[in-house]
Design a protein that fits this description.
heterodimer, A: alpha/beta, three-stranded parallel sheet, 30% helix, B: alpha/beta, Ubiquitin-like (UB roll), 7 domains, five-stranded mixed sheet, 28 helices, 21% strand, globular
Chain lengths: 67, 1080
């Protein structure tokens, strides 16, 4: 592959912990690659397996469920 | 009403109006040079000449001073008019060839060079200056001479007293002929003094009419009577002509309003020490020496340099910045203050880290300090991060002067480094970390109210009544009581409100007004009209990604009808503007792309609510915390990500449905967990405010850690005071005290908690509306320095116990030593326990008092006797207690032989090893929370890495949890002394009372629901629900959600095989649309 692999990652983040943690990462100015898109859910338990499959179906290279 | 024809169209104007005024109203542009809206027109420049047709005749008239009349016909843009104007401009350019404004105008009219002989004037004799001078009520200048000799001048060409140097002439001069320098040199005898902007710390100027700062409340301009020309001469009042709504009233007078009140809270605040008073650093002479507050403005996006970090003298980007600590604090020289201001160390660290972030290059930052005092919650970690990760240099050295290096604009600081070498180092900017001090206004107010002040002019309070002034019914809070930071001030304010509330419990609700919100507009059935507001957040967002590009992109998204960007979307003026825009643009859904919904969603929900839109038709795109701040070096990628996040939010907001928060009945009783000082204080206050309160304590006695304390730093007898507080709780009928009691189970939610407690094997359920966690912490028992191996090696509290019991064998003790930070500020426990330095100093002084000939040593890393406690530290040194600052990087050892104990460490100052042979060794150990914390998991509230509870927001909600109705106070929150624990107890009670006083509170609308048509009663949802919020209705064979218990986690929606269970606001479609939108 000539181009550098730049994966597209979808993250489902729990409002109460992982989403707050992602906010805190911002407050602390922790740097990470800009290829992740966070979708806020009220709990990681809310993440339907269909959401994950749909993300892969649409071309996600990785799905992170954080909660 | 007069009707006439303007450029072929019929227009109307009022009798007496001039042509130019009417044309302006109809949007017809006529160029002018000598016209000013507020001045009587003079027709001097002739540029506004237009063509008038009447009865077959043509005339050329100046629009500015030609009155309109019925039936005339005006043409403003004919070839003749244009040629005429061109000639005028050409003549003016010949007179003033170097005036940029005329050069620009000539270009517009196609004039390359004037055909006439050029002169070198800069004045076009428009007379604006003389007319405005007259309007200002001065008439100091006029047009003198005739014909070719005519010019603007003072009578007899002499400097005059009549000119008050207001600068109005320079402001209106269209050519730049009149300058401030000329006014000063040739016109006025008075000095032309710019008005410094108070908000920007004088770094820039302001006008006599100004908005104090962008977020001022109320956000309306004020007139500075001391500077406004009208109040000096009676003239001007030009502002009244520009104000479209006639809001300006120069006759307004101060009013005296009398209020009948039951108690008063005074919070007059503090001011920064002014280093100009005794200018030892050359602060007034050197623009590159700034105070910390000035530096805050330099860093601020709304500051004088737009958030660009530059050197004030020449705008150069600094490469090296130094902070000098303790400027005006811990200093008994004239004008300075003897106490520690408590906030400067942490703010200097913050400024250094922010400066590094702002700097494009590799900025070097150095903080020169005496002791780094990062004693607040989590501040030590912040300090470590600055030092270890950000590379901020910390140099222990008190700097007494700064020498400017004039040529390079640099400042030289001379100091002695760790190895004793003398070093001269140059810095671009030197920041003076100025301390806080009492204000003159605060002092006068206190004297008027009869409130006692201490020797520093702070309000005198006691440790046990920390917000009560000497005058009954008057409470104090904030830095008026002692220097303190924002969290402490906010907690103080809650405590003061709690005290006032306890005295006024009977009159609660008697003067209440209800807030009116507009009726909600029913938008169901309407297709989405989405508005997107992109926040720049100063430079926090705009500095790292392309906000204009995001705005342009948002405009292309489906259903988006309005997009704009705001400097600070959360400021009050912007909020009002957004509300207005929603109404004007008839938006029915709103996206704010800004910070995080975790902190700002409620604020913006209220904004849309004020525009009549349901607050759930709103979505945030998190382009700050989760974008600009985490991709600070990838502008392009961050911009793309922000666009994606906006697109995702827009796709979701279009699907959202209006929701309504359920109302929940409030049980007006409270549960306080933990019978220490903070807990008992909270209970007493709640009971006094009229709420029944349960206090549960796991041990058999009330008092907690205070049972082991001898005296407060102010010398109050802790045991005596504690006994009084306990007695108060025990005798109050509104309080039910349960000792030997533990919590077994917690269920319910704000307003309706059910907590099962066990008292000596007997269980009972307590129903309560709110809970306050005051579970405390304890003194760490060390595992080093021979602790436990010698009866005279004690912890601080063990020594206190001996003072209380009066059983210290003083005869055997000739030398005592204290070792600070035993087990704290280390890798395993990287926090400061705040109280130990003061505690050791207090104990050392007690030993000296008991036996003056005793040698007492305190071996420390940084002495953190913050605030007014610095007095105690000074007293200790004066009484001969020896303080040894030891080198923490080298080992400190305690050994024991036949001669007794032996402490060895390396003195930082002497740079050599010292040995002390104490008979009494006191180990100052940290305050540690319990290893296991069942209360945290039972109430589902978080604890930090150190084991202390984490408040919802350090500054804005310092005593609350994100879980509504649950509060925290005392040592459970973080290590703190008696007075602060009591303040927190009062503050938590006060915050709890804000809920208890309501009959109903609003619950959560984001919950699950089960569609009865699709539910087939399989009960899989019940199996996964962590909150037992779902019931099976046997008779109907279906499941049902209990909305009061459901937290909206959505697990049921995932488990449901038929799709009957779903969660509002996060339903399958609403989440999936975001997944799809993420891929464009």
């Amino acid at each position: 592959m000539s181009e550098e692999f730049n994966p597209k990652i979808i993250t489902f983040a729990c409002n109460w912990c992982a989403y707050s943690a992602a906010d805190l990462a911002g407050v602390s100015r922790l740097q990470y690659p800009p290829n992740m898109r966070i979708i806020r859910v009220m709990c990681s338990g809310r993440v339907n397996p269909n959401f994950i499959l749909e993300a892969f179906n649409l071309g996600a290279d990785g799905v992170l469920v954080a909660g | 009403m007069i009707t006439f024809i303007l450029n072929g169209k019929e227009v109307q104007g009022q009798e007496g109006e001039y042509l130019l005024q009417v044309a302006e109203r109809y949007g017809v542009e006529i160029p002018t040079l000598c016209h000013h809206k507020a001045l009587e027109p003079a027709g001097m420049c002739r540029l506004c000449t237009v063509e008038m047709h009447y009865g077959g005749r043509v005339r050329y008239v100046t629009a500015c001073n030609y009155p309109i009349w019925e039936g005339m016909e005006i043409k403003t843009d004919t070839r003749t008019v244009h040629e005429g104007r061109k000639l005028i401009v050409e003549l003016l350019l010949a007179r003033c060839p170097d005036v940029p404004m005329l050069q620009e105008l000539s270009k517009k009219y196609g004039i390359k060079a004037p055909r006439f002989k050029t002169e070198d004037d800069t004045c076009i004799l428009c007379g604006l200056c003389t007319r405005i001078c007259e309007r200002m009520g001065n008439s100091a200048i006029t047009l003198t001479g005739r014909g070719l000799d005519m010019k603007v001048d003072t009578p007899f060409h002499i400097q005059t007293d009549a000119c008050i140097a207001c600068g109005a002439c320079a402001m209106v001069c269209p050519t730049g002929h009149i300058t401030k320098e000329k006014i000063q040199a040739h016109v006025s005898k008075h000095e032309l003094i710019p008005i410094p902007s108070e908000y920007d710390m004088g770094l820039v100027g302001r006008k006599p009419i100004y908005v104090p700062y962008a977020q001022a409340v109320p956000n309306t301009p004020v007139i500075d009577r001391d500077r406004c020309v009208h109040f000096k001469t009676g003239g001007c009042k030009i502002c009244t002509e520009f104000c479209g709504v006639n809001a300006i009233d120069h006759m307004q007078k101060d009013e005296i309003v009398e209020l009948d009140v039951g108690s008063i809270i005074i919070a007059p605040g503090t001011q920064a020490f002014d280093p100009a008073v005794h200018d030892t650093f050359g602060y007034t002479k050197n623009p590159n020496i700034v105070t910390s507050l000035e530096f805050e403005r330099i860093l601020s996006a709304s500051g004088p340099y737009g958030g660009h970090l530059v050197r004030p003298s020449d705008g150069k980007e600094p490469e090296k910045i130094a902070w000098l600590q303790c400027i005006g604090s811990r200093d008994e020289h004239l004008g300075a203050q003897g106490y520690c201001s408590g906030v400067c160390c942490t703010y200097a660290i913050k400024e250094a880290m922010l400066a590094k972030e702002h700097s494009k290059g590799d900025l070097d930052t150095a903080v020169f300090y005496i002791d780094m005092r990062t004693h607040g919650k989590d501040f030590e970690r912040y300090y470590n991060r600055a030092k270890d990760e950000m590379g901020v240099r910390f140099i222990k050295s008190k700097i007494t002067n700064v020498t400017p290096n004039d040529k390079a604009g640099m400042q030289v600081i001379r100091y002695v480094d760790e190895s004793g070498r003398r070093i001269d180092e140059e810095f671009d900017i030197v920041v003076l970390s100025v301390g806080l001090m009492a204000t003159k206004e605060g002092t006068e107010l206190a004297q008027r109210l009869g409130v006692d002040l201490d020797h520093y002019n702070f309000a005198r309070t006691s440790s046990f009544e920390p917000v009560e002034s000497s005058m009954p019914g008057i409470y104090v809070c904030g830095a008026f009581e002692a220097p303190k930071d924002i969290p402490a001030s906010v907690i103080d304010s809650s405590a003061a409100a709690g005290m006032a509330g306890s005295k006024l419990a009977e009159s609660r609700w008697s003067l209440t007004q209800t807030k009116e919100t507009p009726d909600e507009i029913d938008v169901r059935g309407e297709s989405p009209r989405i508005g997107v507001f992109v926040c720049r957040c100063g430079t926090n967002i705009a500095g790292f990604l392309g906000v204009p590009e995001v705005v342009e992109y948002a405009k292309t998204l489906p259903n988006v009808f309005y997009v704009e960007d705001n400097l600070f979307s959360c400021s009050q003026d912007t909020q009002e503007k957004i509300t207005q825009v929603i109404k004007e643009q008839k938006l029915n859904r709103v996206v704010v792309a800004a910070c995080t919904p975790r902190t700002h969603e409620p604020l913006f929900q209220e904004t849309v609510l004020n525009a009549g839109i349901n607050k759930y038709l709103f979505e945030m795109a998190n382009i700050r915390n989760q974008c600009s701040w985490v991709h600070t070096k990838e502008r392009e990628a961050a911009t793309e990500k922000a666009k994606d996040l906006v697109r995702m939010a827009v796709s979701k907001v279009g699907l959202l449905e209006p929701l309504y928060d359920p109302e929940i009945e409030m049980n007006p009783s409270a549960l306080v967990i933990g019978g220490g000082l903070a807990g008992i204080t909270a209970v007493n206050n709640l009971a006094q405010q009229g709420y029944f309160t349960y206090l549960i304590e796991k041990s058999d006695v009330l008092g907690g850690q205070a049972l082991n304390l001898y005296e407060t730093w102010q010398g109050e007898d802790v045991q005596k005071k504690l006994a009084g507080i306990i007695k108060e709780a025990e005798s109050d009928k509104n309080i039910n005290i349960l000792t030997n009691t533990q919590i077994k189970e917690v269920s319910g939610f704000v307003g309706n908690f059910q907590t099962t407690v066990e008292t000596m094997g007997k269980e009972q359920v307590i129903e309560h509306g709110v809970a306050i966690i005051a579970t405390g912490a304890q003194e760490f028992k060390p595992d080093q320095y021979l602790y436990g191996e010698d009866p005279l090696i004690l912890t601080g509290l063990e020594l206190n116990r001996k003072f209380i019991d009066d059983n210290l064998s003083l005869n055997e003790i000739h030398t005592a030593a204290f070792i600070q930070c035993v087990g704290s500020r280390i890798k395993e426990r990287p926090y400061c326990s705040k109280v130990c330095c003061t505690h050791s100093v207090k104990n050392a002084l007690k030993l000296k008092q008991l036996k003056p000939e005793m040698d007492v040593f305190i071996i420390y890393r940084d002495m953190r006797t913050y605030g007014l406690r610095e007095d105690l530290y000074r007293e200790a040194r004066a009484k001969g207690i020896a303080f040894i600052h030891y080198d923490f990087s080298k080992e400190l050892t305690v050994s024991k032989n036949q001669n007794g104990l032996n402490v060895r460490c390396t003195s930082y100052v002497l740079q050599r090893e010292v040995e002390i042979r104490p008979d009494l060794l006191v180990l100052a150990t940290p305050i540690v929370p319990p290893r296991e914390n069942p209360v945290a998991s039972l109430f589902k509230v978080p604890v930090n890495e150190d084991g202390f509870f984490v408040e919802a927001h350090v500054k804005l909600q310092p005593l609350e949890f994100a879980t509504k109705g649950v509060f925290v106070c005392g040592l459970a929150h973080s290590p703190k002394p008696v007075d602060e624990a009591i303040t927190q107890g009062l503050g938590a009670a006060s915050r709890a009372a804000t809920l208890l006083s309501q009959k109903k509170v609003l619950g959560n609308a984001i919950i699950s629901s089960i569609n009865t048509q699709f539910c087939r009663g399989c009960q899989k949802c019940m199996a996964v629900c962590p909150y037992q919020a779902i019931n099976f209705l046997k008779d109907r064979g279906i499941c049902e959600v209990n909305p009061a218990v459901c937290t909206g986690c959505g697990s049921c929606a995932v488990a449901c095989p038929t799709g009957a269970a779903d969660i509002f606001h996060f339903d399958d479609q609403e989440v999936l649309t975001m997944v799809k939108a993420a891929f464009n």
